[in-house]
Amino acid sequence: MKIPITPVMVTGSTGYVGGVLVKQLLKAGLTVHCPVRDPAKESKLQHLKDLDGSEKLKFFKADLLTKGSYLESMKGCSVVFHLAAPFITVVPKDKVQEVLLDPSIKGALNVLESANAESSIKRVVMTSSIAAIVTDGTDCEEALKRTGKMCNEETWNESATETFSPYALSKTMAEKAAWAFMKENDCSYELAVCNPSFVLGPGVKVFEGSESYAFMKKMGDGTYKKTPDISMAVVDVRDVARGHMAAGFLPSVTGERYILNGANTNILDMGKVIFEAYPDYPLPSSRIPKWLIYCIAPLLGQ
Fold first, then answer.
1. 220-229 confidence digits (pLDDT tens)
2. Burial code of 199-220, b = ≥16 C-beta within 10 A, e = fewer?
3. Quick check: 281 and 216 in contact, CB under 8 A?
4. pTM, whole model, 2 decimals?
5. Burial class (CB in 10 A: 0-12, 13-18, 19+), 192
6. Which secondary structure element, helix H or strand E, spans residue 123, and what is its range?
7. What sign results for the dihedral spanned by CA atoms 167, 173, 175, 178?
8. 3-state DSSP call for residue 286?
9. Dihedral (C-alpha) 58, 12, 192, 129: value to the nearest 10 degrees?
10. pLDDT higher than 90, residue 141
11. How confident is the model at residue 136 (pLDDT cuts 50, 70, 90)?
């Protein structure tokens, strides 16, 4: 993979996946432009400044919902990695538009519009999600019955709504808006989209507010001691960062979406793997039957 010598830009650089991507970009010798809400807030940036090669980091002020705010940070860049978007699975019904949909959709369009005004940019890599492909296993089963194929990059999430998996809805709508923008505009760059499954693994610091870290905490504190018999797709955060770099720099990668997945597993089997290294934690050890979940869920408003 040929890495350019020109700078690149990363939105969401202070976040979980963004931090690991920045780390790998710096390791490759690149200058990385990091647009953030407040460049003067050292506490939000220190984990990036502590990385090897951080002298090649440049910070700029920008916001997803402020039009044109990314223009300065894009100057001279050849590739834009757009990772910034809210990852929140539980949102009050009256806040879905404000908290999830607007930042995801308007933020993506803001980045794409600004990139079209900077002639140096040759490619934009956008982070979507496997949630833009399917909400859950039921979607997979229905797609298999309908098409005779497993869900793939041609599949779009059709089940998510503002009340059922609003996060998946936000990823689906944002990605569709991005592809529509590319189709409707004469863009000077190419678009590639990464659709990772549930991202786990070591970040460049502990992100207490991250859904991924919250999940792992529950794995180890006994919350999932008894767990539903539910399958899930997971991927290592370091592989997600590598996938983004491949999407950004490989000549053959353009105009497509790419699922990034490491393993199809379940919480109980994940607990067994973790137990080998951490046997003293109350890790998942038994399954709750699906039929019991179906009976209880309506009582809990799920």
1. 999 998 888 7
2. bbbebbeebeebebeebeeebb
3. no
4. 0.93
5. buried
6. strand 123-127
7. negative
8. strand
9. 170
10. no
11. confident
Token pair 């000549």: residue: 251
Bridge partners (DSSP) of residue 222 are none
Residue that is written with structure tokens 């931090």 in the block: 19
Return the structure tokens found at 200.
């786990």
Contact in structure between 62 and 36 (CB atoms under 8 Å): yes
Handedness of CA 227, 229, 230, 234 (dihedral sign): positive
Six token digits for residue 243? 């996938």
pLDDT in tens, 9-58: 999 999 999 999 999 999 999 999 999 999 999 999 999 999 999 999 99
User: 143-152: which pairs have CB atoms within 8 A and are 24 or more residues apart?
Assistant: 152/259
Q: Which one has a higher pLDDT value, 136 or 248?
A: 248
